[in-house]
Amino acid sequence: MDMFYAASTSGFYDPSIHQRIPPDAVEITHAEYEALYAGVASGFDIEIDSMGRPVLVAPQPLPVEDLRAAASAQLPAWEAAERTASIEHAGRRWLTTPEALQDIRDALLAGLVPGGVWIDAAREPVPMTLAELQALWAACVTRGAAIYQRRLMMEAEIAAMDAGQLVTFAPNWPA
């Protein structure tokens, strides 16, 4: 049994299943349906030709400004992930979540390391002096500054990219 395609809904209709078929639907063979369906799955679009028949067409490229906006929209999530990924310092891994950074700030403002121990990312207690905690804080600040500088660099790179580069853009650190 043949199928139908309706441009108004961009949908396929099987009369053995669908009771209502849009009035603009055109009848297509099962082979045409399979070819159209496979084409859409491969990234092609369906348009109606001059004879009113559905045909596969290559998708229209997005305007460069839309691609630029999409690339830029990836940066906040990248930055947030980098800021909470933890850091390596003094041979250990340390949390850099907002809560962990606030704990370090609080201890530094108080001028003490409670019990002379700090907890690393593996939840292991580590003997620590105030000077060592200050060094950890300095490493966190340095890492945060590097992340911010990289984001600024990527913003500038995005502004100068062409459409091909924007399509493949993914936030990252330089190799």
TrEMBL record:
InterPro entries: DUF4376. Residues 67-162 form the DUF4376 domain. It comes from the Bacteria. Pfam families: DUF4376. This is DUF4376 domain-containing protein. It comes from Chitiniphilus shinanonensis.
